[in-house]
Amino acid sequence: IAGALVAFGIGVAIAFLVTQAGLAVPASARPQRPDDIPAPRPLSWRHAVSCYLAECRAVLRMFDWLQPFRSRLTFAQPTDPLPDTPTVLLVHGYGCNHAVWLDLAPALAGAGYRCEGIDLTPVLGDIDDYAAALLVRMRDLHARTGYPPLLVCHSMGGLAARAAQVMADTAGETVPCAGIVTLGSPHRGCPLATFGAGTNARQMRWASPWLTTLAEAESPAMRSRMISVFSWHDSIAGPAHTAWLEGARHIPLSGIGHVSLLRDPRAVQATLDGLATLRKQPASTSDSALPLPHGDASARFM
Fold first, then answer.
1. Tens digits of per-residue pLDDT, 44-78?
2. Residues with Cβ within 8 Å of residue 19, at least 6 apart in sequence
3. Helices 127-145/156-170 angle, 10° precision
């Protein structure tokens, strides 16, 4: 057991190092930092170690406890639901299922949001197929509740949500989505996807043809309904530039790993801030940019 834990710890450390170094991502290919993103502050050694240990705990909890043993649990629902508010549809990332949201869902319920989840299958499938299934679920929620859903997406789930919007638009229909909050989504791709298995991993490689085609198909209105929450110290979806989308809004965080974005209190608050902002935005008619989320994003740096 000790050997397995050591190997696990080394693996997480390597993921951090590869991602933070931006290996296989030429400096010339990295986009300029958007105006709404303050420059990152240096992370102290103490905070770096804390970030690493928290990520190790989060990975073990998500992959060795919640997903294999708690996936039959249902999400907490609000005792005092927000009036006239869309349901929040939770969309997981690569190699996961809906159980990864069990730590964050209670906070959403406490804020008055009704939540539902979706499982994207098969595990190593095509993101376009996930998008099609997601679009069906979005339409269903719209029909059942009378409101297009708000989406909260982790990692690859954010790419599936973007692709679902494009599919709806291509079909000539109003996009059944009130807005999207992405957590650590590799919108421009990431180096570690090169080592992943499956069609979805190939699609998530840095500047892949699939990602390029997706970006070219998006309208300003689609981007204006998106808020990208990211960490300067993400251990998978990095370097941080991968989370930047022209026309979207951004909430930068510091000292939080990739899986930890699903449970860290700062990421939870950023998600709630993003949802509050999206609730004020028309679902599909405006090309204008969203107002900044409540609060100063730079205050979330350690």
1. 999 999 999 999 999 999 999 999 999 999 999 99
2. 190, 191, 192, 234, 235, 236, 237, 238, 239
3. 70
Amino acid at 272: L
44 Cβ contact list (under 8 Å, min separation 6)? 302
Tokens standing for residue 237: 């979806």
Query: Distance between CA 64 and CA 68 in Å, rounded?
Result: 6
Contact 119, 91 (CB under 8 A): no
What is the count of structural domains for the chain?
Answer: 1
What range does the domain containing 76 cover? 2-25+46-300
| 230-254: pLDDT as tens digits | 999 999 998 999 999 999 999 999 9
* Predicted structure pTM score: 0.92
| Cα–Cα distance, 177 to 174 (Å, whole number) | 9
Q: Which two tokens stand for residue 61?
A: 């909890």
**Looking at 157-248, which runs of residues are DSSP E strands?**
179-183, 226-231
CB neighbours of residue 147 within 10 Å: 15
Rounded Cα gap, residues 111 and 118, in angstroms: 21
Residue 12 lies in a domain: yes
Cis peptide before 282 (omega within 30 of 0): no
At 12, which CATH number?
3.40.50.1820
Q: In what order do the strands lie in the sheet with 249-253?
A: 115-118, 88-91, 150-154, 179-183, 226-231, 249-253
Contacts (Cβ under 8 Å, ≥6 apart) of 97: 67, 71, 119
Backbone angles phi, psi at 198, to 5 degrees: 100, 160
